[in-house]
Amino acid sequence: MPDLATNILLSVAVFAGAFVSSLAGFAFSAVAGAILLRIFQPMEAVPLMMACSIGVQAANLWALRRNIQWEGSLLLVVGGALGIPIAIYLLQNADTHILRVGFGIIVAFYAGYMLFRPTLARGTATTSRRLTALVGFGGGLVGGLTAMPGAIPTIWCDMRGLPKSDQRGLVQPFIAIMQVLALALLLERQSLSPRLVIDIAISLPALLAGSVLGIVAFRNINEVGFRRTILVLLLISGASLALA
Question: Which domain holds residue 119?
Answer without folding.
Answer: 3-242
